[in-house]
Amino acid sequence: MKRYKITLLFLIIVISGCKLYVNHKFHLERKFDFKDKSSFLKYLKSKKIFDENHILYVGAEGYQNFIIEKLQQDSSIMYQGCYVNDSVYINRSSLLNENTSCMGRIDLEIAANFKRTTIPDSLLITGKRISSYHLKYLSDNSTFYMNPQKKINLMLVYAYSLGTYYDELYRKIMLLTEENESIADTYLICVDPVYLLN
């Protein structure tokens, strides 16, 4: 019995130690406490993970619905999808559906969609219009409209509480977007309550 208790105690220490290490290494579970939108944008610019002119936030009118419908129901942590217009997007592969937070799978999914010369109707899904969530540009608070000139508008999510965990993937995707700039635009949607900031 004593050996069992020691083993159990050891496992608890290892598991909690791993969580503490990961939280510390990637700065996870940070509190979103910016004073205004400009300081948040300055922070994001300093990270050099994304083009500042493609950073969006969800407006007050659509915030709750976005969190419930796009994050909770969709089980997406970072990848929102490759949209061909405001309400039509490419269906996720079964590989990505098995683990929607896996960086390798997200990367493969985006690269495969960018390589498509045509997108068959069988891969397209019509859903709720992305504009119904009242997305705005963080740089100037103007309303976001999807670029009709691009074949694919990639939508990614950013949450301050996820720390630096996805930073390298964001950078990699930006390079991939630059290589495919004739067909694709990529946007980062901040899901922190940015709409509350001045």
> Which percent range describes the beta-strand content?
15-25%
What is the distance, rounded to the nearest whole angstrom, between the alpha carbons of the first and last residues? 59 Å
Count of helix runs: 6
Q: Could you tell me the radius of gyration in angstroms?
A: 19 Å
Task: Report the uncertain regions.
Answer: 8-28
Report the strand count.
7
* Share of residues in helices: 25-40%
What is the chain-wise order of helices and strands? HHEHEEHHEEEHE
Could you say which structural class the secondary elements and strand pairing correspond to?
alpha/beta
The global form is globular
The overall average pLDDT, rounded, is 85
Strand numbers in spatial order across the main sheet = 2-6-7-1-5
Give a short account of the largest sheet: 5 strands, mixed
Please provide a written account of the structure.
The strands form two sheets. The protein has a five-stranded mixed β-sheet. It is built from six helices and seven strands; from the N terminus they run ααβαββααβββαβ. Strand 6, helix 6 and strand 7 (184-190) form a beta-alpha-beta unit. With 198 residues, the chain is an alpha/beta fold.
